[in-house]
Write a structure and sequence with these properties.
Layout (H helix, E strand, L loop, with lengths): L12 E7 L3 H11 L5 E4 L1 H5 L10 E6 L3 H12 L1
Antiparallel strand pairs: 1-3, 2-3
Length: 80
């Protein structure tokens, strides 16, 4: 996906949440539906062993710093 005026390779990414599957992909879809770039960051060893709970199963949700406040407000509105 292309984001006009935003160079994702130079953006500072901020972790806005840490979740377990499947909540990570639900939040990812919500953020993407608003046209905001998002990355899921997980521990590779957790996925190798199929872990979905605990520290090795958790997924960090990151967005460019320019969108962090907007996404936090979006999350409050959706999950309050």
């Amino acid at each position: 996906m292309d984001y006009p005026g935003l160079d994702l390779s130079k953006s500072v990414w901020v972790v806005i949440a840490t979740l377990s599957p499947p909540d990570d992909v639900v939040l990812e879809s919500l953020i993407q539906s608003f046209g905001i770039p998002v990355r899921l960051i997980n521990e590779s060893i957790g996925s190798v062993f199929g872990l979905t709970i605990g520290p090795l199963g958790q997924v960090k949700i990151a967005v460019p710093e320019d969108y962090a406040e907007e996404v936090k407000q979006l999350m409050q509105a959706e999950f309050a």
